[in-house]
Amino acid sequence: MLLASVIACAAIALTAPSMALAGCAGRRLLTCQEKQQVFADTLAWTDAYVLDFELFETNTTLPLSNPALRGFWTFEASTAAARSSLDFELGDQLTDSNFEQVAPPAKLAAPSVKSHGTVTRGMARDLSRLMLAEQQEVLNLEALDTAMNRATYASFLSSRADWSRWQLAAAAGFAHHAEAALGRVISAQRIVTHDLVAKKLLYGVGSVDLKLAQSHVKHHGLAHSLVATMTHLGLIPGVITLIQNGFVHRSAKKLSFSLTQLLSSSFVIGDERLMITALRHFMARTPRAGRPPS
Predict the structure, then answer these.
(1) Closest Cα partner for 131 from 265, 229, 57, 40?
(2) Percentages of the chain per state (helix, strand, coil), in multiples of 5
(3) Band (231; pLDDT cuts 50, 70, 90)
(4) Inter-residue contact 52 to 84 (CB < 8 Å)
(5) Contact (Cβ atoms closer than 8 angstroms) between residue 128 and residue 112
(6) Are 84 and 45 in contact (CB under 8 A)?
(7) 116: which of 68, 87, 182, 261 fits an S-S bond (Cβ 3.0–4.6 Å)?
(8) CA gyration radius for the chain?
(9) pLDDT tens across 115-150, in order?
(10) In the predicted model, is pLDDT for residue 6 greater than 60?
(11) Which range, 29-43, 45-59, 253-267, has the best average confidence (pLDDT)?
């Protein structure tokens, strides 16, 4: 991954989304429609992480003293930021010269929370199920991005179409696992929303609190728990800095007085389904390919 390219290009996505779609710019190994569908998911999760981060950056009366709920929302906010960043990288023309190696997804322990107070055993299982599906999506998106970056380098900078085809075939495999995980995410999101609403755990975000949170982050940085979780998920420091800057400067289009309901709202799930469509289309048109001789 070229960090300078990631920073420059992601800054465009965070500050001027329309620019990223002008002329269907971006990854030439993806179709225009695929890039547009992926970018819709990028914007959904950029809005989501901006709202989620506010929970950790202001002194509110929200019930995050419960360790299970705090652990869940820490993971939820971090994966929202990761999904936004990785979606954008997928659609952008980034390169990686190590095209003779396929980088598999990282292997991490399954994330989970334990029952505590208002969080019953069944609810803890539901929260943990969503966390695991999100982690699997993120890790496979990371591997997908790396394969696409290497295919892009081989195709456009090294004139090695054979290696590009091999990396694209690997990317299709990672896309398959990311798409399957995303299906599990959607199902788990709905269940978690039901659980939290039943407990009246809505987690509201207002414009005043958001502005206070943005000012706090501007001067003091993100909460350590968020940085630690994003780092554990594989995000490098430069991308985390970009995410922090995105939080500070982005105006949220959809303020929500119930992040719990936003989690499985029709517009969020609609954009996730567009992402699924893009991944399926990419897989369907990508043939299998063996590793070329060195």
Answers:
(1) 229
(2) 70, 0, 30
(3) very high
(4) no
(5) yes
(6) yes
(7) 68
(8) 19
(9) 999 999 999 999 999 999 999 999 999 999 999 999
(10) no
(11) 29-43
Decide if 135 contacts 233 (C-beta within 8 A). yes
Give me 289's structure tokens.
């390919």
Complete DSSP assignment for 29-45: TS-HHHHHHHHHHHHHH
Report the C-alpha gap between 53 and 58 in whole angstroms: 9
Q: What number of H helices and E strands is found in the chain?
A: 11, 0
Amino acid identity of residue 178, one-letter, is A
> How far apart are the C-alpha atoms of 274 and 37, rounded to whole Å?
5
State yes or no: pLDDT of 2 exceeds 50.
Answer: no
Work out the average pLDDT over 270-282.
98
- Give Cα separations from 255 to 17, 69, 180, 270, 283 (angstroms): 18, 21, 30, 18, 35
Compute φ and ψ for 116, nearest 5 degrees.
-165, 125
Q: How big is the CA angle at 96 (ends 39 and 31), to the nearest 5 degrees?
A: 35
Which structure tokens are listed for 36?
A: 């547009």
Residue 126 near residue 191 (C-beta atoms within 8 A): yes
For the record, the structure tokens of 168 come out as 């694209």
Identify the CA nearest to 186 among candidates 86, 78, 277, 68: 277
**Residue 260: Cβ within 10 Å count:** 20
